[in-house]
Amino acid sequence: MTTPPRAPQDRDRPRPPRRLRRLRPARASGSPYRVWTTRTTGVAATVALIAGTLVLPTAAAATADGSAAAATAAAADELPAQPLNWTACPFPGAPGGLQCASVQVPVDYARPRGAKTTVTVNRLRATGAHPVGSLFFDPGGPGGSGTELVYAESLGAGLFTAATREHFDLIGLDPRGVGLSSPVRCDPELLNRQVSLFPTDEAGFRRLVERNRELGLSCRRLTGPLLEHLDTVSAARDLEVLRRALGQGALNYLGLSYGSQLGTAYAELFPDRIRTLALDGALDHSLPTTTLFKDEAQAYEDSFRRFADRCAQDTSCALHGTDVGRMFDDLVAAADRTPVPAPACVRSGNCRPSVTGEDIRLNLQGMLLFPARQGELALALQQARNGDASAFSPPLATGPSDGEVNGSAIAIECLDWPTPVRTLADLQRLQRLGRTVAPRLGGASQSWTILTGCIGWPAPVVNPPRPAAVRHAPPILITNATHDPSTAYPWAVHLAAQLPSGVLVTREGDGHTSYLARGAARTRDAIDNYLLTGLTPPPGTVYDD
User: Fold this and answer.
1) In the prediction, which pLDDT does 69 show?
2) Sign of CA dihedral 284, 287, 290, 291
3) Crossing angle, helix 289-313 and helix 446-453, to 10 degrees?
4) How far apart are CA 326 and CA 494, in angstroms?
């Protein structure tokens, strides 16, 4: 991976995200909200991001869910087509070639004539004279803003390949509740309230549940009824409204990480309206939340072990000659006893002034997403060992819909993924599972933040996991790395098995997703070629990128 050019760093300028997280947000200790610290930063710092056993719901349940989805998809078709009125985007300093447009969609698709909410996209025109059409892009999350990455591209970030830029108008998508699309609003004091996601006693468990409940109620108060309708199926229906409004025919879509879940939901509802659907870094929504947690915990532990092994072999690694695993264990234990100072945060006031071991275990995951940035991880660990853990400090919310810390991710996740945790004993059983499959990291992962962050959340699950029911779709391309620290490789294998027209291309290598990962040239070329021609590589293709 190479580091793209930095965007302007002014405090009043939205800045392109640093990191993609599932592509999903990293979570700080006690933080059920989106934290784009390195895996995506709303508009934070730099564009340096680029570079088991499955227990399934029954077929009968999937059929019933599919019938309900078809009915509400028909309801979306009843909406009159809306033309897109392209105007200047609200990003300061955005070039004139970047345009934004919005549509009004139902808050609740079961009541298509009822209250409306706004969904916004932006567009960056193709560089070629004869583009194929438009390419909708979702960077993941949930909570990731496609408009921010397309904005970054308009500033010269070079996130997208020359082939994509030549042949497609880029359409950056902000799903409902995210970014420019009626963002979730929550009490910043509650967003910043620090509680442990690994409580050891009843008092700690009660603090966690109470914070979740109070936070969710504040989001409901400030966001309104939309909070109960941020599920991925509703977002997929919004995507169809946008496709119709664009008026260019069948959909071209590139979804990274969580964006693959959104793309799969669209394919279930509207399989005959797809031209190309590229799902990079597969999130399999058929999995029980506990299986999701187990698989991700194992994948994260595997990636950290491989990082430590590379440091042992690479003399340029700042930790070369150090037993990285033992050093990490000692650092986490010491930070849990006495939090490590974060002097950069003391100076800026934008992040917590000290860092716990829990913070380190949770936030290190984002630094493993792109292998070319792992030199930074080694330096961050070295600095933390020497008393400066600023790199691992969670950012602080400065307002109800802060660009870096907000409630969009947890609000979406708690509608899509049920938590089995009701008591401290339930949580402790899952902690034992985490320590079993990931002895060093103890299960710290984004999936853990779903299991813990949704305990006590006031909005009910409306889109529970189920097998994907996609019929009569054109070829769908799925890509995944074998050592992805976030979207575990078995998820891609299982998702491909659920999609009759799905073709899995495996990247033998490290890092999260492939399209934005510098060094994954053959995998990225396969995605480009598919988007241009609709042709996939042969099933079973493996690239050693």
Assistant:
1) 53
2) negative
3) 150
4) 35
Is the CB of residue 206 less than 8 Å from the CB of residue 424? no
What are the distances in angstroms from CA 207 to CA 31, 66, 199, 211, 405? 13, 38, 9, 6, 20
Three-class DSSP labels, 335-381: HHHCCEECHHHHHHCCECCEECHHHHHHHHHHHCCCHHHHHHHHHHH
Residue 478 phi/psi, 5-degree rounding, is: -120, 130
Question: Which string of DSSP letters, residue by residue, matches 462-485?
Answer: SS--------S---EEEEEEEE-S
Q: Find residue 100's DSSP bridge partners.
A: 87, 122
Q: Which residues pair with 169 in a beta bridge?
A: 134
Convert the pLDDT of each residue in 457-491 to its tens digit. Answer: 999 999 999 999 999 999 999 999 999 999 999 99
Q: Do residues 527 and 477 make contact, with C-beta atoms less than 8 angstroms apart?
A: yes
How many Å apart are CA 394 and CA 24, to the nearest integer?
15
Calpha distance 62→154 (Å, rounded): 42
The pLDDT value recorded for residue 61 is 40
Answer whether 465's CB lies under 8 Å from 288's CB.
yes
CA distance 106 to 118: 9
DSSP per position, 238-282? HHHHHHHHHTSSSEEEEEETHHHHHHHHHHHH-GGGEEEEEEES-
Pairing assessment for the beta strands 405-406 and 34-35 based on DSSP bridges? antiparallel
Decide: 375 and 367 in contact? Cβ < 8 Å: no
- As given in the structure block, the two tokens for residue 124 are 């960056």
Q: Which residues of 244-281 are buried (b: 16+ CB within 10 A; e: fewer)?
A: bbbebebbbbbbbbbbbbbbbbbbbbbbebbbbbbbbb
Strands 354-355, 405-406: pairing kind:
unpaired
Where the chain has pLDDT below 50, the residues are: 1-66
Residues 180 and 90: their CA atoms lie apart, in Å, by: 9
- Owner of token pair 């602080």: 396
Dihedral (Cα; 539, 303, 34, 318), 10-degree rounding? -130
Q: Are strands 502-510 and 405-406 parallel, antiparallel or unpaired?
A: unpaired
CA 109 – CA 120 distance, rounded (Å): 18
3-state secondary structure of 24: coil
Q: φ, ψ for residue 149 (rounded to 5)?
A: -70, -35
Measure the CA–CA gap between 23 and 256, rounded to whole angstroms: 6
Residue type, 111: R
Containing 207, the helix (H) or strand (E) segment is helix 202-223
Q: Tell me the one-letter amino acid at 409.
A: A
Q: Who contacts 379 (Cβ-Cβ below 8 Å, separation ≥6)? A: 318, 391
Which residue type is seen at 243? Answer: R
Q: Which residues contact 131 (CB under 8 A, 6 or more apart)?
A: 125, 166, 167, 168, 169
How far apart are the C-alpha atoms of 61 and 119, rounded to whole Å? 31
Per-residue pLDDT, 75:
58
Task: Give the span between the Cα atoms of 324 and 342, in whole angstroms.
Answer: 21
Q: Hunting for tokens 């949930």 — which residue is that?
A: 142
What is d(CA 14, CA 280) in angstroms, rounded to the nearest whole number? 26
Which helix (H) or strand (E) covers residue 118, if one does?
Answer: strand 116-124
